[in-house]
Amino acid sequence: MASQILQDKVVFVTGAARGQGRAHAVRFAEEGADVIAYDLCDQLDSVAYPMATPEDLEETVRLVEKTGRRIVAEHGDVRDRDRLAEVVDRGVAELGRLDFVLANAGILPAAGAPGRDITAYTDAISVMLNGVYFTIEAALPALLRNPDGGAIVITSSAAGFTSVSTGFDTMTHGAAGYTAAKHGVIGLMRHFARSLAEKNIRVNTVHPGGVATPMVLNEALAEWAGEHPSFSAAQQPLLQLPMMEPQDVSDLMVYLCGPSGRYMTGAAIPLDAGQTSK
After folding, report:
1. What is the model's pLDDT at position 33?
2. Residues annotated catalytic, as ranges
3. Closest to 64 measured CA to CA, from 17, 126, 110
4. Deepest of 58, 110, 245, 270, by most Cβ within 10 A of its Cβ?
5. Could you give the residue ranges of the DSSP H alpha helices within 67-172?
């Protein structure tokens, strides 16, 4: 049985239908938290791999409920601030409070023909930079009502410290948008960390390297990586370890949101086995 260090807390997770978002939702539930889960569950034309489905979100619900915790799960776009606010309000009305925000929703529109279209750039910025800002803004009223404060963790990437593009042959609109968005959320994190510290709300970014999720393990990205050896070489970590699993990122999310992370705010934390230290 888990230690239940987040007993009766409530977490809001975007991109919760699968991958890292699902892992975070389930892990927080195992630690005693209730969950507000949000995911588009639809396809964007700029993304070459299959995105999450309504069935994926249903599975997240099943896995959270299996832990004995409650979950409010809704479809929605992080580019839609009004929808985000509506879902947060509904979740707080049902679950009673909000303690943590995991701004996790993301896309990787770098590969294939879609990645070479300008919409890959605009979608990347809209989802992973504007969408993060809208997520936090929509959740802030509920967080500010919490007398205990809370924590916000933004999912950035190793690409928040370097570039997806490794040369002229990998210079796609999608690679530029992903890189810019993942750098940009560090600025948002620092803005909110300074602004919200007096309210006891901590804000950090987490920067995973390659994680074994459908966003990374798919035919489109594998084909693109095979065509561009420099891209594959840049993803190699220093530590000789198996590919990171979503649950490994969840461990850090729990650390940052739980009592162990009470002194941490304004930090951009690499979780990449040394990939960006080379």
Report:
1. 98
2. 178
3. 17
4. 110
5. 81-95, 112-115, 118-125, 131-144
